[in-house]
């Protein structure tokens, strides 16, 4: 599945949110198909959103999840740390954060 191309030069504000939403669409396509090319595309697009606005908490959160699923735990956990510095603790999903950290810790263990 390919999405329609959009001329982003015509987007005058919230371009970071456009890319975050587009990244989420590709991540969702990965979840439903388990085709890694969608996950790779999502990661690229989340990075683009964060180059525009490094404080975009939605892109940090979604990007962290996508990176952890891509076995890029170091980078994913950096996104997560940045996210935690920006979001009030009352809005943090501690269970999901612990889950991501546990996945990364398991992957880091020698086999």
Describe this structure in words.
This protein has 111 residues and is an all-alpha fold. Helices cover 70% and strands 0% of the residues. Helix 1 (15-33) runs parallel beside helix 3 (57-69) and helix 2 (36-52) runs antiparallel to helix 3 (57-69). It is globular, with a radius of gyration of 14 Å.
Write the layout of secondary structure elements.
Elements: H1 15-33, H2 36-52, H3 57-69, H4 73-86, H5 94-108
Helix pairs in contact: 1-2, 1-3, 2-3, 3-4, 4-5
Count of DSSP strands: 0
| Strand residue content | under 5%
Number of helices: 5
Order of helices and strands: HHHHH
Short description:
Helix content is 70%, strand content 0%. It is an all-alpha fold and 111 residues long.
Name the features.
111 residues; 70% helix; mainly alpha
């Amino acid at each position: 599945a390919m999405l329609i191309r959009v001329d982003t030069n015509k987007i005058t504000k919230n371009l970071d949110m456009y890319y975050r939403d587009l990244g989420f669409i590709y991540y969702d396509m990965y979840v439903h198909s388990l085709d890694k090319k969608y996950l790779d595309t999502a990661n690229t697009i989340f990075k683009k959103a964060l180059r525009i606005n490094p404080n975009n908490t939605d892109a940090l959160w979604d990007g962290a999840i996508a990176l952890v699923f891509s076995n890029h735990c170091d980078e994913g956990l950096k996104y997560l740390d940045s996210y935690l510095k920006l979001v009030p603790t009352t809005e943090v999903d501690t269970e999901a954060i612990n889950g991501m950290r546990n996945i990364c810790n398991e992957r880091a263990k020698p086999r």
